[in-house]
Design goal:
Length: 256
């Protein structure tokens, strides 16, 4: 089975750039480009040559390094087809169902609109990994800037249907604040209580709390749990459709 190295680079205030590398094939991609210099210096230390940038959405803290990386390495830039005009240096536009050949791996594109209307995620089934940008976070979900709650909920449901052992890589380290909020809507959840303590300890030691895994999110992330009776009762929405319960949780987080 081919091996994929995955490396998170903490940069800017709370972003992660993520490098994926297939040593045998000699290809390396950066998922988003928050900080070109941080990415270039990591590539240099590792001796990896950047071949691709894979953008999840157009926000500047995800695309700001595109042009510099392209100029420095000659990599190709791939991004969401619905945001082509807003992705600097884009060479190839992709959407739901498209696949990207990456060394020994195939990367599958999922449309995950909501945070932005063209937002996409990159799923590598063989590596049991998905790169979700700002759609899903550990115990949290992205803000809905351009889409609506129903759209975002459908995007999250798509991620929820991936294999349970899928490692989830996110665009930001928001986990501690997310855990605090999650406890306000799902306080009796023992798995959540334990995880909140665990992530506090990790951050106190300066360690990342990501990646997370789909099975852990399904147990502890209130945004993925609008069907849970205890959460519905707490919100006073026993019979509402899941997406409306999700929307209420998102509203409360916006105000938290
Ligand atoms: Fe964003």
């Amino acid at each position: 089975m081919p091996k994929l190295d995955i490396l998170q680079i903490a940069c800017l205030s709370d972003n992660y750039a993520i490098l994926i590398h297939d040593e045998e094939a000699g290809v390396t991609a950066s998922i988003d480009s928050p900080d070109a210099e941080a990415i270039l210096s990591t590539l240099k230390i590792r001796g990896w040559r950047l071949t691709h940038v894979l953008n999840t959405h157009h926000h500047a803290d995800h695309t700001g390094g595109n042009l510099r990386l392209k100029e420095e390495t000659g990599c190709i830039v791939i991004g969401p087809q619905a945001e082509t005009e807003r992705i600097p240096g884009i060479d190839r536009a992709v959407g739901e169902g498209d696949t990207i050949a990456f060394g020994n791996f195939e990367i599958r594109v999922l449309d995950t609109p909501g945070h932005t209307v063209g937002h996409i995620a990159y799923w590598i089934p063989e590596a049991r990994a998905v790169f979700v940008g700002d759609t899903l976070f550990a115990m949290g979900a992205g803000r809905i800037f351009e889409g609506n709650a129903e759209m975002m909920w459908n995007s999250l449901k798509k991620i929820m249907q991936l294999p349970l052992d899928t490692e989830i890589y996110c665009g930001h380290e928001y986990t501690v604040a997310n855990a605090q909020f999650a406890l306000t809507v799902d306080p009796e959840n023992l798995a959540l209580q334990n995880r909140a303590k665990e992530v506090d300890q990790l951050r106190a030691k300066g360690q990342p709390t990501l990646p997370t895994r789909l099975d852990r999110e399904l147990e502890t992330n209130p945004f993925l749990r609008p069907n849970v009776t205890a959460i519905r009762e707490r919100l006073g929405m026993p019979f509402a459709p899941d997406w409306k319960v999700f929307a209420e949780i998102r509203e409360r987080k916006n105000k938290a």
